[in-house]
């Protein structure tokens, strides 16, 4: 199981995560939300590795 962390202060809002995996990374009511159960852990790891700012991190549980 994985747990996701997002550092708002680091995020440069490039939108890579939201565009690559919209079922996991979404903006709802103006808030950034992450649903770590909406895709495979491998796919999420792949998108996190593409985050240009390093704002996203994964904790393996
Ligand atoms: S990919 Fe990274 S920098 Fe871009 S919006 Fe997502 S968290 Fe922010």
Give an overview in words.
With 61 residues, this protein is α+β, with helices and mostly antiparallel strands. The chain has a single domain, classed as Alpha-Beta Plaits (2-Layer Sandwich), CATH 3.30.70. The protein is built from two helices and four strands, in the order βαββαβ. It has helices at 16-20, 41-50, and strands at residues 2-6, 25-28, 31-34, 56-60. The strands form two sheets. The protein has a two-stranded antiparallel sheet with strand order 1-4. Strands 2-3 form a two-stranded antiparallel sheet. β2 (25-28) and β3 (31-34) form a beta hairpin. It is globular. The mean pLDDT is 96. The protein binds iron/sulfur cluster.
Kindly list the characteristics that best describe this protein:
61 residues, alpha+beta, Alpha-Beta Plaits, two-stranded antiparallel ribbon, 2 helices, 4 strands, 25% helix, binds iron/sulfur cluster
Summarize this structure briefly.
This protein is of the alpha+beta class and 61 residues long.
State the helix count: 2
Q: Could you give the distance between the termini?
A: 5 Å
Q: In the CATH hierarchy, what is the class?
A: Alpha Beta
Radius of gyration: 10 Å
Runs in which pLDDT lies below 50 for 5 or more consecutive residues are none
Number of strands: 4
CATH architecture: 2-Layer Sandwich
**Topology-level CATH name:** Alpha-Beta Plaits
β-strand percent reads: 25-35%
Helix/strand-derived class? alpha+beta
Strands of the widest sheet, in order across it, are 1-4
Bound molecules: iron/sulfur cluster
Indicate the mean pLDDT.
96
* SSE sequence, one letter per element: EHEEHE
Largest sheet: 2 strands, antiparallel
Tertiary shape: globular
**Tally of domains:** 1
Portion of residues in helices?
Answer: 10-25%
């Amino acid at each position: 199981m994985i747990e996701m962390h997002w550092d708002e202060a680091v995020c440069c809002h490039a939108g890579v995560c939201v565009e690559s995996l919209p079922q996991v990374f979404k903006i709802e009511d103006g808030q950034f939300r992450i649903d770590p159960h909406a895709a495979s852990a491998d796919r999420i790891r792949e998108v996190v590795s593409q985050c240009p700012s390093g704002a996203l991190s994964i904790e393996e549980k």
